[in-house]
Amino acid sequence: MEKSVFLERSSCAKIEPYGVFAMREKINKLARGIVDQERPSTHFSEERIEGKISLLESKTFEIFIQSLNAVPMRGLVYCEAPYISLHKNAFGGVRTKVSFTVNTEGMEEESELRGELSFVYLGGEKQIPYHFILEKSPSAKQLKEIRHFEDLQKLMEADKKAATRIFDYRDFLSAPIMQSAKAVKLYELLKPCGNRALALEEFLAYFSYRPKNGINRKGLLSSSKRKEEKKLEFPEGLSLEEKISLCIRRGERGEEAFELYKRGVEENIKLTNLYENLLYSMKKGYKEELPRAVYLYFSYEYRVEEGLASALYYNILQNFPENSEIYLRFARQMQDFAVESMLAGKMDEELALLYQKLILPDMVDEKMAELLPKLLRSYKVVVEDSEMEKLILSHPALKGEEVYSLKEGEAYIPMPYKDMILLFQDGMGNRYTRVNHRKTKVFEGEDLEKRMERFSEYTPVFLLQKALQLEKEGIKTEEELECMERAFDNSAFSNSFRMEILAQILAYHRQEKQSEFPEESLRFLHHIPTKGMKKKEKEDYLAALLYRKEMDRALMFYKEYPYLHIEKELLPAFSDSAIDRGEEELSLYLSHLAFRAERISDKGLSYLLEEWNGSSKEMYAVLKTAEQRREEKGGIDASRLLNMAERLLAQCLFTEKMREAEEAFHLYRKFSGRESLLIRAFLSNYAASIFLYQKRELPDFTALLYEEVRGESYKERVPLLYLLALSYSFSKRESLTEDERELLNSIVPILLEKNLVFSYTKSLAKFVPLPGAVLEKTVVEYHGKAEEKPYFSVRAEGEKEFHREELQHSYHGIYTASFLLFPGEKMEYRFTLGKEDKLLYESVLKKEEGMMMEGEDVYTALCKMSRLLMEEKVEELLPLMEDYEEKELSIARVLKD
Hints:
Elements: H1 20-31, E1 42-44, E2 49-54, E3 58-67, E4 73-78, E5 84-86, E6 90-93, E7 95-103, E8 112-121, E9 124-135, H2 138-144, H3 149-158, H4 160-167, H5 181-190, H6 196-206, H7 222-225, H8 240-250, H9 255-266, H10 274-281, H11 292-299, H12 306-319, H13 325-343, H14 349-358, H15 366-376, E10 378-383, E11 388-394, E12 402-405, E13 410-414, E14 421-426, E15 431-432, E16 437-441, H16 446-452, H17 460-473, H18 478-489, H19 495-511, H20 519-526, H21 535-547, H22 551-560, H23 571-580, H24 584-596, H25 602-611, H26 616-633, H27 638-655, H28 658-670, H29 676-691, H30 699-710, H31 720-731, H32 738-753, H33 772-776, E17 777-783, E18 791-796, E19 803-805, E20 808-811, E21 814-820, E22 826-833, E23 838-846, H34 858-871, H35 874-896
Parallel strand pairs: 2-9
Antiparallel strand pairs: 1-3, 3-7, 4-6, 4-8, 5-7, 8-9, 10-13, 10-16, 11-12, 11-14, 14-15, 17-21, 18-19, 18-22, 20-21, 22-23
């Protein structure tokens, strides 16, 4: 058990160490009946803390606290926000400061922070709200304003240099327009472009927002730059064979050379490499039948030279049916060549025909199925602009890019996905998004596509296509989850697309809360990289861990990113796991979050009862919730309720929150709190409230005060404040019991001995005898501060001016003065303060009505005669006057003798 803040023996109370001494001292004084009216007048330099903090940085703020009346302060400060670090949680002295640091590390998307600091100090409590604006870099501010492509277009039209500079900002990808995978991919593809203004223009042009002041570029047609083929020149008198021989030596492969080679074959000229040069010089896609000798020549060789095979086999397929002699001679080698070319991923117009004719559906296996999707969706691209030298191809979901060189303005490219991005690059490395071109599909193979579906799940193309579909539609089954996990692990996919995949995976983990997950899926969850995640993705990841009950990993992750939002339904289990693992600070924070969300478990509530310290209002709310929970379910241990009730009561007495102290005391007694020192401290506080501050009485507390005083045999040991408060309470009653009269009879002598006579004292005469000196005088009293003694001035009837009378400081800021007045006699009085005689209060003092005096003393006789004179009862007055005169004469004679 911890030591109480106010007890020397063991107790279940637990308060922050820095506040122990001040609170213990306060409680011990109260228990002895000492009410310290000199409390510090605490002033805070800030009523609200506002400021700006650069994102991803830390900043320190200060609050200066001063005691305006030079009475030393003592107090504690609390703040539950995990991103705020208090430099110390206690303060004291006449002038001090509380400083704290706000750490915004990791807060990439937050724009502001809100909360409050709670101060608990001697004589009061205060909550100071804070509001911090998180400032991003100047570039981030500019980027935030670019919400649409049109905004960037207008900026470029107004200031091309500024727009280009923004386009090259390191954090341009954080701009609102860059939140799509397509925009990110296009930006990456344009990054190598040396002319950055051109790159920006092409970026906008892709989305149909080309600026009006863009570069006016006109492409040159390929034909205009294409070199015309030179006419072959030969020495005079050469024969055909000599001409062909010369062409072979020169390496001529143009159309004119092709005709010479063809004539040579037809005329059966025998020259080395004649047939090979014939095929080399044959233009692409040549469909006319060649001399039969050519087919026969190559039929003897099983493997035709690689550069010749495609053209030869293409020509055969164009000219000979399957049952023809020539076709049958080449059938096996054509098919083998087609398979090899397909497995190598090659494609052009000639190969397309070979695949279509020679690759049968039954031949498709897993390896071929990986390549077929690209080949089946291959296109011939013809670019009319002769300045373009390369085609750049990619997809938003893929990493990197593919580069295809243009040959005579043509290239064959695979485009197996929708939304592929095609750029055009010139010789300077500049890239363009809009260039005139023609695109023609080169391969049709419906049967192959059907066959390929059997192996589709093994192909990267299918994996991406399926992932793209599920990214839009969401994951509904464990099979689809497994597919997305494989897609996420595929290093060929872009980071932005993998994050989109991850969002769907995490969403599925959150939706399928009750289902049992395969071990593989949990392992996948464990190894997800979190560094590149945005806030929403991190929150989804945390939720997924919690739904899967991966509490250790969830706690480690949350400690790294404590600003993340946690769903209400996840808070109870999360806070309980933090408690089980001994994470003290995190347990308090999470348990309080769960409490405010009205989702706290019995374990979390018990932990708060044991450990939570904050404002009295918060502690009382926790205590009442726990009390109700115990009454409904019985799950909260009574000792924990007592623990917080004791701490709360001590804090309310320390901060002098009387109403809250009364409520806390009710609960403390309800939970069997019996510590006499704490009870007496509360009774002192209650006695001060009804006697010093004239607050309303509560019968239960007054009865407890009565029992406390009655139970002490030696009343001199009872704090004087108890006696005053109880006698004041009795004075307002119409009747007392015999025991109460007996107790009052033992109290009054002690008060009179100490000259503690107040305006209410005469009222006690109806229950106990009082001295005549008390009954004769009328008492005026003023309740103020002990350190601010007022001036007291009076003016009797007939007097023109006020004159000052001496005041007696009777008790703790109560000043009294006594006057002997007769019935009907009046006296004006006033209380003033300071040299300026600032008026505090003024009134008229009269003899109390209704209190008849008994006795034979002079004052009693004069009072009776004054009353009869006022009532004009002459017949009753005359005997009294005669008797009074006779007594006065007798006294005079005695004195004379």
